[in-house]
Design brief:
The protein is α/β, with parallel strands linked by helices. The chain is built from 17 helices and 26 strands. Helix 4 packs across helix 10 and helix 16 crosses helix 17.
Length: 484
């Protein structure tokens, strides 16, 4: 139980009607979860405005309501708190309700289009290898020290986020690493959190179905850096033209990492193989179990963030040599018949180009073919569909266009839109197979010894969403079945 006035102390311009000292038993933003003693925060969502449920929550026992607009009829038994933005209010209240957990952790956020999951996860794994307890909030999984919780979205909702951070504190974690999505920035899910550091990986076309323009997408990412405290560090990719944009208004200390130019943290790829790379990080040689320049960028950011957190550089390098790839990120599967399959989450044009370019570089001089299976998600940015197909065809010997997560859309229509990006020559090497399982099976049947099959788009996801229903589907499982 906590008094309402404590929970709303940080809310600017809040107008209270009723008893500000009422005791609160639970904070909720879902009207279905309201019980006696609850504080209900009415948020205006994309499709539903929770203000319409306020009378119902009062009947269910809510003793306080936070809202942007007061209901027509006020209950004398309820305290109403009117605020300019209830989404911001929810973030600040959630942080207070769970005891301001981010202030008891060294919390590092990772944002960008590609590499967020890998970077955040490797920082988490690095801490454990070095003997420290840490937490992780990512697209793939949420970890409270060594206890795993399912991940439903890249950045959890306000209440779940603060609850997990609180549990990390209770478990004795000293560090926490989280992916910070552009949606989370715009929807104020990270408001009120205190970060020890922020990492920017890169920015390419993505989520334009939500942000509408690239400029709006950049602005969403920049919001994160603009709110960092002076005590934090901001580490950005110097080789991405948006990197310095992130630093323009930040109060945090500014740092860069690069594979191309002078920076605080530099990396050079000495040798790239299908089983790993040889790197030189800030003048020190390192063997890692990762493949590709995009992973060299991820590892450089991990090294930089770890050093900025205060870890000794030599200890970091020793631990980095023991790190392994994240599930569904350039995950390698070997066939008994001599070909290799790569399962990767690449679902943007830039990510797909990175993976295919890496494969082409590794296979230079060999006669191996690259057979690519890819699709595009439904109810998302349709503009990238022809681009994805075109980039795949440019860099592959054979392409199979298939479904990804079609959601409410017709998968065949999505494939037709991808097909429109191909010229006549590219169409000759491209097949259309709407059933993803059949597409993976066909790719493996076509592969000869030495070839590489790339299955792109879903990576770690153990489901396929069709007509609003999530059905079990795991690319890695399907590849293994096809191999056998």
């Amino acid at each position: 139980m906590k008094p309402l006035n404590q929970l709303i102390a940080s809310l600017a311009d809040a107008q209270v009607t009723g008893n500000a000292h009422v005791e609160i038993s639970e904070v909720v933003c879902d009207s279905r979860q309201v019980a006696a003693g609850s504080l209900f925060v009415a948020v205006r969502g994309v499709t539903v405005d929770a203000h319409r449920f306020i009378p119902e929550t009062v009947k269910q026992g809510a003793v306080a309501v936070v809202c942007e607009q007061l209901p027509a009829s006020l209950s004398p038994a309820v305290t109403y708190v009117q605020v300019p933005d209830s989404t911001v209010a929810l973030a600040l209240i959630a942080h207070e309700w769970w005891g301001r957990p981010s202030e008891k952790l060294k919390l590092v956020g990772v944002t960008g289009t590609n590499g967020k999951t890998t970077t955040a996860t490797l920082l988490y794994e690095l801490c454990h290898l070095m003997g420290y307890k840490a937490g992780l909030l990512s697209t793939v999984r949420n970890m409270v020290d060594l206890t795993e919780y399912p991940a439903k979205q890249t950045t959890p909702d306000h209440l779940t986020l603060c609850r997990l951070l609180h549990e990390m504190v209770e478990a004795g974690c000293e560090y926490a690493f989280m992916e910070v999505s552009s949606h989370a920035c715009v929807q104020h899910r990270i408001d009120g959190l205190r970060f020890a550091g922020a990492v920017f990986t890169n920015l390419t076309r993505d989520h334009l179905d939500f942000h509408k323009t690239v400029d709006a997408y950049i602005a969403a990412k920049k919001m994160f850096f603009d709110t960092l405290p002076a005590s934090a560090f901001a580490l950005v990719n110097a080789d991405d033209k948006v990197g310095d944009v992130m630093l323009q208004n930040t109060r945090a200390s500014k740092h860069h990492y690069s594979l191309r130019t002078m920076a605080d943290f530099t990396c050079r790829v000495v040798e790239d193989r299908l089983d790993g790379m040889s790197l030189v990080l800030n003048g020190r040689e390192l063997e890692v179990q990762f493949v590709g320049r995009f992973n060299a960028y991820n590892l450089t950011s991990v090294y930089g963030a770890a050093v900025l957190l205060g870890f000794a550089a030599e200890e970091v390098l020793v631990a980095m040599s023991r790190l392994v790839p994240v599930a569904g990120r350039f995950e390698t599967l070997r066939s008994p018949s001599g070909y290799t399959a790569i399962v990767d989450y690449a679902h943007t044009p830039d990510a797909l180009v990175n993976v295919l370019d890496t494969l082409r570089e590794v296979l230079t001089g060999s006669r191996a073919r690259i057979i690519t299976v890819c699709g595009c998600g439904g109810d998302r940015d349709a503009g990238k569909r022809p681009i994805m197909a075109r980039e795949a065809a440019k860099r592959s010997s054979q392409v199979i266009l298939t479904s990804d997560n079609p959601r409410s859309e017709d998968p065949n229509q999505i494939i037709r839109e991808m097909w429109e990006g191909l010229d006549a020559e590219q169409q000759l090497i491209t097949l259309k197979v709407s059933d993803r399982r059949d597409a993976i099976r066909l790719a493996c049947q076509l592969a000869q010894p030495g070839d590489v099959v790339l299955v792109a788009g879903k990576g770690h996801e153990p489901y396929q969403e069709v007509k609003g229903v999530r059905q079990h589907f795991d690319d890695r499982e399907e590849v293994r079945k096809a191999m056998n």
